[in-house]
Amino acid sequence: MELSKTFQMPVKNKDNLIRYVIGGILGIIPVLNLLPIGYAFILMRKHIFENASESLPEWEGWGTLFKYGFLTFLIILGYMLIPLAIIGLGVAAEATHVAILEYVGVTFDIIGGLSFLAAIFLFPMGIILFAIDDEVSSAFAIFHVIDMTIKHIGSYLKASIIIFVMNFVPGFLSQIPFIGWIISIFVEVYILLESALFFGDVGQAIAERAGKKTPQAEEMEDVVLEPEVTSTAKAEEQQEAQPEVKEETKTENNEKDEEKKED
């Protein structure tokens, strides 16, 4: 997908703009701000399997949106938990002011910082795999996540850099007095949609390479439909059966005639 089309998509037409504004409004409200995350996840899935590059989906299936928003939030939290725990142990060790523990604390801080950067870089791939397989466990299959990241490093790195740079914008806008935080939330929702499209491109390549389809499509392939007997076929069967009946009737009539003659 071209960069210009990707950036224009959320505001490309009136319908897209309205749907984007709805996401921005929901992003302001606590708890309900999980809905735009779920919406972006659904957009990513549609882009992976249907190449949804022209219009944003309708705001429907609110329960599904909340579910995927919550699961996506848990995946991000899961990636960040271990690095933050390591950094916390490092800070606690340094606070003791014991020389050897301070040394251990600094080591933990370095390890935690590096693992935090790795988590930031890898969790989008985890969400991509979750979108493809529709299984949370796929997001935490860390060796598979790393393998897919390496195999698609070009497109994945490009998407990561673009989104990383865009995430600086809300911080600057939030400094505007009074309305800055509202503007920054709308920008964050815009970045969410852009993330869905950019990382959706990566997901397309992964799904095509693996021959993956939507779960609904895979279920339909497993359904074996028995051929229905059409009205034409039934008519043909009736026509074939009718001559036999007529021949039997003729035979019976001939036998009766012969019996009468004998009498």
List the helices and strands and how they pair.
Layout: H1 3-8, H2 14-28, H3 34-50, H4 62-95, H5 99-133, H6 136-139, H7 142-151, H8 153-166, H9 168-173, H10 180-210, H11 215-222, H12 231-262
Helix pairs in contact: 2-3, 2-10, 3-4, 3-5, 3-10, 4-5, 5-7, 5-10, 8-10
Low-confidence spans: pLDDT under 50, at least 5 residues? Answer: 219-236
| Helix count from the secondary structure assignment | 12
Q: Please give the oligomerization state of what you see.
A: single chain
Please describe the biggest sheet, giving its number of strands, its sense, and whether it closes into a barrel.
Answer: none
Overall number of domains = 2
SSE order in H/E notation? Answer: HHHHHHHHHHHH
The assigned structural class equals mainly alpha
Record field, number of beta strands: 0
Tell me the distance between the termini.
Answer: 96 Å
Estimate what percentage of residues fall within beta strands: under 5%
Write down the overall mean pLDDT: 83
Inertia-based shape: globular
The radius of gyration is: 32 Å
Kindly state the percentage of residues in helix: over 70%
Commentary on this structure:
The protein is mainly alpha-helical and 263 residues long. The chain has two domains: 3-222, no CATH class; 229-263. Helix content is 81%, strand content 0%. It has helices at 3-8, 14-28, 34-50, 62-95, 99-133, 136-139, 142-151, 153-166, 168-173, 180-210, 215-222, 231-262. Helix 2 (14-28) packs antiparallel against helix 3 (34-50), helix 3 packs across helix 5 and helix 3 (34-50) packs parallel to helix 10 (180-210). The model is unreliable at 219-236 (pLDDT under 50).
